[in-house]
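=== RUN LOG ===
request id: a7f3
mode: sequence -> structure
chains: 1
length: 341
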Amino acid sequence: MTQKKAQIKCQLAASLRHRVIVPPENPSKPFLSSACRLAGYADQCRSSTKSLSLSGSVFEQVVENERGYANEKYFMPCDEQEQTRLAILYQCFTSILNGQPSFQSIPRSAKRILEIGTGTGDWAVAVAERFPEAEITATDITCFQPTDVPPNVFFEIDDAQEEWTYTEPFDFIHIRGLAGAFSDWPAVYAQAYQHLQTNGVLEVADFGTISLGEQIADSYLSIYNGACASAAEKSGCPLGLDHMKKAVIEKAGLSIGKSRTFDVPLGTWSSDSRKKVAGKMALIATLEGLEASSLRLLTQHMDWKVEDVRDLCGKVQGELMRPDAQPFITCQFTVARKLPT
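=== RESULT ===
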């Protein structure tokens, strides 16, 4: 697919599948927020995102509280600031996986690969480059993916909670970072099962709750975590890692092959050199993500004022940046397979 065709396909899909609500009058929130500067990694943030060619202007956003969203429901923004955070988060995952695109090795024989919730499209592009003979389909509810991409990657506007209409099965399905996105994970897994080849693989990866190395009673972080969890429950799309439990995935007919949980340090406090690299990226993404993850949830479902959400986020940032905090976040990978019947 040429660059022009990729963009046209995204534009056409957006026009057919989504109603434009409000064009962004002021889409100019800077790429680097104060959180990134607070962490002291501004130069690294710039270098990690400067090569992206994003087509965010193709898809108009719902603007709330100076943040752009894909629709009226999904709690995470999709604006330029969030695109930067997602690009950094991709680097964090890559570091955790020691440079590999996935926890489960993708077989060289794979011909069709699907990514649900592609975000900036980094994973799909990287896999397309590694597997030039495979066709990579990457979906999201909005369109801000690159247009200068390998010819074997196809970006599509789609909502994974709706019926999947693919006519050919996939060898590998990848879902990452979608905690809080779906109200019915078993239904999503059932569709993944339906659209996998026999012996095909589903890999799900997600981050859990932020924690401090030494728990502090009534910390701002505990208030933040509790408020976000309550708001997500009210929204019908819970946060956390319950969607990765064995019983939830195997209910769809899939068989769990392996699952692993990592505690990823936030910052460079770990003595492990590899964890330092992942930790630096994870800290930036976390500091940037505090507001992104909470603003719509708390204002829509808990009736918080915008300024109160931002004030709490600032206080949590301060706790995470304390020299003795040693914060970390849980990251889980689960691999399931469609066995022969």
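=== NOTES ===
Residues 70 and 142 are 6 Å apart (CA to CA).
Confidence is low (pLDDT under 50) at residues 1-39, 41-58.
=== END ===
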